[in-house]
Structure formats: C-alpha cells, structure tokens
C-alpha cells in the first residue's frame, strides 16, 4: 500500500476530524477571498466615485514675468509675453496617449461686468461639461437649456434678489435665470454662469478660453504622464496637476487596501492556529497507530509524508470550497455595499491563489505536528497497546 493510500484511508476513518479541519481552513480562505474581492470591487467603485467630483488638472495660459522686491518689501510684479489659449487648441486633447484617462474637459472664459453699481464675475462655461464635472451642485429651478439662460450662484442671487424665472441684464443683454445654486460655501456662490459662446462674444474673447479644468481618471495614477502629454499638445498653456486632490484620492485607496491586508493577515493567523491545534491533537490520538507503523519498518520520513499528505488533501478541498464560499459571500456583500453591483465572474487567479494559500497554510501548520509524529519513540508508542 502506498503512502497516499494510507493518508486517504486515515481521512476516511476520521471524517469528523477531517470536516473540522476543512471547516477551519475553509472559513479562513473564504474570509480572505471575500475580503480581498470585496475590497478590490469597492476600491474601484470608490475610485470611480472620487473621479466624479471635481477636476484634478488645470490648464491656464502661460504668463512669463518676474516679481519686484527690495529690502524685503514686495513691490508687485511685471508680466510680459502673456500667451492665450484658443478653443481650437483643445481639439488636441483627445489625441494624447492617455486620452482614455480623460473623462471631462471643461473650458471657461471669465469677464467682469457691473450691475447696480456692483461688480460681478461672470463665467462662460460649457454647461454639459460643467454640470458633469460638478456633481455636488444642487440647483433650485432648472438647468440652462438655451443661450439666453443663465445659472446664478447663491450669494449673487441673494445680492440682486434673483430667483428662477427672473430677468437679469448683463453687458447690455438680458438673460433669464434658469436656476439658482444652493449655497455650498465655495467661490461658485458669488458667480454668474452663462453659455461659453455667449460669454466669449460679450467679453470680446471669441475663440479664446481663460482656463480649462480637466477631470482625469487616475486609478493607476498616470497623472504626471497626462500633464506632460497635455503640455506638449498645448504649448501656450501651463498644465498643472492639483496634487492635493490626487494625493488625497490615492491615500484613501491605499488606506482601504492596507485595512484589507491587515484583516487578511489576522484571519490567516487564526486559521493557522486552528490547523496547528487540530493536527497536534490528531498526532496525540494516533500514538498507537504511529508506533505500529514505526515497528513494522516505516521511516521517520514516511510518517512525515503521511501527515503532510493528509494536510495537503484537506487543504486543497478547503481551498476550493473556500473560494466558492468567498465568492458567494462577496456577491451578498456587494449587493449591500455598492450602488451598482458589478457582475462577479470566475477569477482563475483568485481561485489558484485561494488554493495555494490553503495548501501553504495547511502544510506550514502541520509541519511541526508531522515532525513530532516522526520523532516519536516506537517503543514508547507500543506501550499503549
């Protein structure tokens, strides 16, 4: 009879012990699979949601100049060779290498006008892009749907007594207030937003933009590459990444993954202790059996192989069952934790990883009990007969 047959027969005779071992390892593996898979899906979901809130790249005209200081006093600055960004320059953005990472391009043009003795900053925007960029905006009224409709910030509306449907004169042209932004404590509260082509015409800036806000997907964060590619395509512009936004997003995802790894390590430790205690108990119960094996000529290596083969078989079964249970738990968790639960399919890499972890954990935890069994004195063991 071969050693593997002995190992399998031992497991068959000790079904209760085998099921306990499988259950211990299976729970550990299932927990790790569920935790890692859920964390990955939620990290992707969080990353996608964070990308929806605001720009992380700003494109502005280049402005060469120098500051004047004397004796520690700042005397102002001198600007020269101020370049301009033309709207047609933005057509080069979809041609960059990482164009797939560009989600939103929102051009803007600025102008100051006077209304009732008060100066107001107006911003010409592409409303479709701007509303997609600023998901946090809450509008009382409706979104602008025509060139004669504007959107008014909370403070500006309060200052001029405006509400949805009000008429508002700006730079000699009358506009209808489509909606009013609810107060958010940001600079947008004091602004008036109108359609980009209209603003360009009113302020004498046809075909020009004063700033472009870009929302780039940076899950894998090629943000510096995107900045460099945009700088090459638009040489008249200064392209800047809003580092604190990028860093905050990546720190959030990093903390999320670190938490997952910490919990996984804890589960692995508990699982290994279950296997270790169970295998030691099994060796103690099988003292007489091991003594007989040694008495009839089995070597120490044979005893170790039998114990480790048993652990291997149990670990493989636990890995397969644990992966299936973990993916099932993931589907249940994701349905509660994610708004748009993605389809969860068979992941061969995760499956192989689950089996590998189970086998590695089972063999490592069984190595000392196997060594103890192999080192057992046959004469002492036979005295129990």
Would you mind describing this structure in some detail?
The protein is α+β, with helices and mostly antiparallel strands and 385 residues long. The protein has helices at residues 3-13, 15-51, 127-133, 154-160, 196-202, 223-233, 243-285, 287-295, 300-337, 348-374, 378-382; strands spanning 57-61, 63-70, 73-82, 85-86, 102-115, 118-125, 139-141, 149-152, 167-170, 173-181, 192-195, 208-209, 211-216, 237-241. It has two domains: 3-50 and 251-382, no CATH class; 57-241, no CATH class. The protein contains eleven helices and 14 strands. Strands 1, 5, 6, 7, 8, 9, 10, 11, 13 and 14 form a ten-stranded mixed sheet that branches. Strands 2-3 form a two-stranded antiparallel ribbon. Strand 2 (63-70) and strand 3 form a beta hairpin. Helix 2 (15-51) runs antiparallel to helix 10. The radius of gyration is 34 Å and the shape is elongated.
Can you summarize this structure?
This protein is an alpha+beta fold. The chain has eleven helices and 14 strands.
């Amino acid at each position: 009879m071969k050693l593997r047959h002995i190992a399998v027969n031992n497991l068959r005779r000790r079904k209760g012990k085998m099921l306990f071992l499988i259950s211990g390892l299976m729970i550990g593996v299932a927990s790790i699979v569920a935790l890692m898979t859920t964390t990955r899906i939620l990290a992707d979901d969080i990353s996608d949601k964070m990308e929806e809130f605001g720009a992380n790249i700003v494109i502005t005209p280049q402005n060469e100049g120098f500051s004047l200081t004397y004796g520690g006093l700042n005397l102002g600055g001198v600007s020269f060779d101020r370049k301009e960004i033309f709207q047609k320059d933005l057509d080069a953005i979809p041609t960059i290498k990482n164009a797939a990472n560009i989600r939103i391009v929102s051009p803007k043009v600025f102008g100051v006008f006077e209304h009732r003795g008060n100066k107001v900053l107006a911003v010409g925007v592409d409303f479709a892009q701007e509303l997609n960029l600023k998901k946090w905006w809450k509008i009382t009224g409706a979104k602008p749907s025509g060139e004669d409709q504007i959107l008014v910030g909370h403070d500006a509306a309060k200052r001029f007594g405006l509400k949805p449907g009000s008429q508002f004169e700006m730079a000699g042209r009358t506009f209808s207030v489509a909606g009013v932004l609810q107060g958010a404590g940001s600079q947008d509260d004091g602004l008036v937003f109108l359609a980009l082509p209209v603003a360009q015409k009113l302020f004498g800036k046809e075909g020009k933009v004063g700033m472009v806000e870009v929302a780039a997907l940076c899950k894998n964060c090629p943000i510096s590459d995107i900045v460099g590619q945009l700088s090459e395509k638009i040489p008249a512009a200064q392209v800047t990444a809003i580092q604190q936004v990028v860093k905050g997003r990546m720190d959030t995802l990093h903390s999320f993954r670190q938490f997952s790894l910490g919990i996984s390590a804890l589960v692995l430790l508990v699982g290994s202790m279950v296997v270790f205690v169970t295998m030691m108990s099994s060796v103690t119960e099988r003292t007489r059996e091991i003594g007989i094996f040694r008495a009839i000529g089995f070597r120490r290596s044979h005893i170790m192989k039998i114990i480790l083969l048993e652990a291997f078989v149990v670990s493989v079964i636990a890995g397969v069952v644990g992966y299936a249970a973990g993916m099932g738990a993931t589907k249940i968790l994701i349905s509660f934790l994610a708004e748009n639960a993605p389809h969860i399919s068979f992941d061969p890499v995760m499956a192989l990883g689950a089996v590998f972890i189970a086998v590695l954990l089972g063999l490592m935890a069984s190595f000392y009990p196997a060594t103890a069994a192999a080192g057992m004195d046959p004469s002492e063991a036979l005295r129990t007969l």
